[in-house]
Amino acid sequence: MRERHSLTLDERRPGFAEIQAAGALHPDSGAWLFFMREVVKLPPEMTPAVYQAIRLGKWRLALDPLAEIRSRALDAHRRAWTHRPFVRSAAR
């Protein structure tokens, strides 16, 4: 008789297990570079934004956790680089 292996909903969603594993690691570890390049497919410069998105945990409820992580990380990165509170304008 064949043994059945049923996957839970969490295991079937793309990248769920990988995101969980990466969330348990420190972002300076070598595994994060692989995670950023091969799984999330974002440049290593965005590691802090991806790490923040994972820590916030909204991806756990998304149907596509990888897309959620990418979207939230890109938004956080964009906010960080477009809002510059201490820069004075050249024209007065």
Task: Describe this structure as you would to a colleague.
The chain has helices at 9-12, 16-23, 30-40, 47-56, 65-82. It starts with 8 loop residues before the first helix and ends in a 10-residue tail after the last helix. It has one domain (13-81). The chain has five helices and no strands. The mean pLDDT is 83. 55% of the residues lie in helices and 0% in strands. It is globular. The protein has 92 residues and is mainly alpha-helical.
Report the portion of residues in β strands: under 5%
Q: What's the domain count?
A: 1
Mean pLDDT: 83
How do the helices and strands follow one another from N- to C-terminus?
HHHHH
> In total, how many beta strands?
0
- Biggest beta sheet attributes: none
List low-confidence stretches. none
Write down the Rg: 17 Å
Give the termini distance in whole angstroms: 81 Å
What would the principal axes of the Cα set say about the shape?
Answer: globular
